[in-house]
Amino acid sequence: MNRGTDRSALRALLGPERCREDPATCLAYGYDNSRRTARPDAVVFPESIEEIQAIVEWAARHRAAVVPRGLGSNTTGASVPVAGGLVVSTERMNRILEFLPRDRLIVAQSGVTNEAIQKTAGREGLFWPPDPSSAPYSTLGGNIGTNAGGPHAVRYGTTRDHVLGLAAVDGRGRCFRTGVRTTKSAIGYDLTRLIVGSEGTLAIVAEATLRLVPRPTECLTYRVLYRSPEEATESLIALLNQPIPPSAIEFMDGAAIGLIRESIPGLPTGAQALLLVEIESDRPLERTARARLEQCLAHAGLMDLVVAESPEDAGPLWLARKSLSPALRRLGSGKINEDVVVPTTRLPQFLGELTALGTEHETAIVTFGHAGNGNLHVNLVFDADDAAATERARLAREAVFRLVLRLDGVISGEHGIGLSKRAFMLWQLDATSLTLMQEIKRVFDPLGLLNPGKLLPDPTDLPNSNPVK
Ligand SMILES: Cc1cc2nc3c(=O)[nH]c(=O)nc-3n(C[C@H](O)[C@H](O)[C@H](O)COP(=O)(O)OP(=O)(O)OC[C@H]3O[C@@H](n4cnc5c(N)ncnc54)[C@H](O)[C@@H]3O)c2cc1C
Q: 125-156: b or e for each residue (b if 16 or more CB lie within 10 Å)?
């Protein structure tokens, strides 16, 4: 990529306030939550799709990299400008353009936060199902870039399931609109779903049309502790196979329970698994439906069950999950937070082998996450000042990926690939699928300007090819 290019045309287009080249701004927009950092040559702040188009046209003329950026909360280095060039911040594209409650639609610019979308939808008893816990500081564009999800994905799916259409600019500077405003369509290739999850490597999203759903009025929340992960998994499978779909099923392993014990008194000793189960409905559950649900939870091995009958009463139960991340810091200064998925029926085998893997690599492992989807956050905790411990954690991470693939799982559930997992795409996907992805990339972005170095593996990563299949 070309560095040190004359950016006077960009300054003329956007004005000095919206085309920043000073070191402080470049530093502030060169990092993300992966803690990696790289300096862009400039940061630009467009306000419309036409300005994004002009920026990409300028970049194409000067062969400059273009990195779309929401609020940089991703954990994989996906918005770090490793090839320099321009960071395109969507901060100023933060308007809700249309709210059509009768059609259950919102059209919004890509820099709007997830929280602002939820607030608007909530005014009419609706919500947008993707609910990452980063809602206040992640944008619609970032949620689309990473196909973000949250606890409610078990019932509603992820971002990809709730974006009906997009307006975007490709790597040649062409504006295009995808998708529909209807709940059905049959009009060829689904470009909307292709762009969701593409981490800014195919197009820069300027706005999106979102599908909203009515917010159920009733909510039951259970916190249940079990003697073993096997017994918790049996309950989970029973829950997923009954007609009332749970809206969230969160899991914590024994190590995680140990960490929150101090802040949540009364947890039974010896518990090795915790489930938080939420059931939403439009009216109070009939007695028989509720009894059936509780029968699923009351599997052998149950040690403790607490139920909250309203969202307000559920607050203290969710505290178990919310107090975990701060508690993790007590275990060590270094933490690799992995995000993997296995089929729900393989959870006990996964958790069992994970414990053995932690012992083998002398690394503390704490696991929790969205078990209803089999999506777990595996935290490898170590002393960051100890080089040998850091290397052991690195090797443990690779072993986790090998285990996941052996169990027919996936190396990323919601955090994406970015920089940190791109080499492992060779482990996950077959060579033809990867070639097709490279070819799709070239169609949208023939000069390779959009977010270079992300998502797709580099040819030099090839020796790492799949160790499992
Ligand atoms: C405390 C915390 C909790 C989190 N919890 C969750 C969670 O529950 N679920 C979850 O899924 N994630 C979670 N995340 C990760 C993160 O918040 C999400 O990945 C989020 O979607 C990123 O949004 P962002 O606006 O910060 O995007 P960024 O981090 O800036 O960008 C993310 C990716 O999207 C691309 N992108 C950004 N804007 C555009 C655009 N307009 N057009 C095209 N591409 C674009 C970027 O190039 C990059 O590849 C969490 C992060 C933190 C720090």
A: ebbbbbbbebbeebbbbbbbbbbbbbbbbbbb
Q: Give dist(CA 220, CA 310) in Å, integer.
A: 6
Enter the tokens of residue 133. 């816990």
Each residue of 338-392: pLDDT tens digit? 999 999 999 999 999 999 999 999 999 999 999 999 999 999 999 999 999 999 9
Is the separation of the CB atoms in 32 and 77 below 8 Å?
yes
- Phi and psi of 438, rounded to 5°? -60, -40
| Listed residues 289, 306, 325: the one ending a domain | 325
Ligand 1-lining residues (CB < 6 angstroms): 32-33, 67-75, 78-79, 90, 110, 132-134, 138-139, 141-143, 145-146, 148-150, 199-200, 204-205, 414-415, 451
H or E element, residue 236? helix 229-240
pTM over 0.85: yes
Domain span holding position 288 = 218-325
Q: What CA–CA distance (Å, rounded) separates 199 from 201?
A: 6
Number of domains the chain contains: 3
Q: What is the pLDDT of residues 11-42, one digit of tens each?
A: 999 999 999 999 999 999 999 999 899 999 99
- What's 362's domain CATH number? 3.30.70.2740
**Which tens digits make up the pLDDT trace of 137-169?**
999 999 999 999 999 999 999 999 999 999 999
Pocket perturbation via mutation, ligand 1, pick of 128, 144, 146, 377 by most ligand atoms within 8 A of CB: 146
